[in-house]
Design brief:
194 residues; tt1808, chain A; six-stranded mixed β-sheet; three-stranded antiparallel β-sheet; 14 strands; globular; endonuclease activity; Restrct_endonuc-II-like; Uma2 family endonuclease
Length: 194
């Protein structure tokens, strides 16, 4: 997730020229910059960062399932461009398919599945705002909002009518990604966490 970046508003063209010169990735929404959050320090009693663990588990499970297909899961390194909102965002996990995959800071405007695992105290580009932008992408079929601490998932799925529906998955439930024909056991998603 991103942290607010205290600068004057920037045009989209200026952002696109400026972003590649930066050591740290920045999101861009409606003329404002948000510096991507560095790895979060875990509490002294925690041995792993729950957010990082869930993100890695999800990307690994997706890539294992997608092996041999034209699709691939990217973890935090794919910038998503939302033309309708002039927004550039870095989701935690993005599934993109052949011909549309451009890893690194080159944006894709055609993600198939997006997942965010918000950090406690995340920056100003909150999940609801992010999803409001993501759902404007015609290619997007499913959006996962994962709570690493509570071990639950809110899965938003685009219906055949174009409307989005919410399917909450509680602790212990398997998560079904219909667009990828994947049933992901909760135990795999939250493996390594207490």
């Amino acid at each position: 997730m991103a942290q607010p970046f205290d600068t004057p508003r920037m045009t989209e063209a200026d952002y696109l020229a400026w972003a590649p010169t930066q050591a740290r990735a920045h999101e861009y929404v409606e003329g404002r910059l948000y510096a991507m959050q560095e790895d979060v320090e875990t509490e002294p009693f925690e041995r792993v960062d729950p957010r990082a663990m869930v993100t890695r588990n999800l990307a690994d499970a997706l890539n294992a399932h997608l092996r041999g297909t034209e699709c691939k899961a990217h973890m935090g390194d794919m910038r998503v461009y939302v033309p309708a909102a002039a927004a550039y965002l870095y989701p935690d996990v993005v599934v993109s398919c052949a011909g549309r995959t451009r890893p690194g800071r080159t944006p894709t405007a055609e993600p198939f599945v997006i997942a965010d695992v918000p950090s406690p105290g995340a920056g100003s580009v909150y999940p609801g705002v992010r999803f409001a932008h993501y759902r404007r992408l015609p290619s997007l079929r499913e959006y996962m909002l994962i709570d690493a601490r509570r071990h639950c998932v809110d899965l938003y799925r685009r219906g055949t009518d174009g409307l989005w529906g919410l399917r909450p998955w509680e602790q212990g439930d398997d998560v079904s990604l219909a667009s990828l024909d994947l049933r992901l056991p909760a135990a795999a998603l939250f493996a390594g966490l207490p």
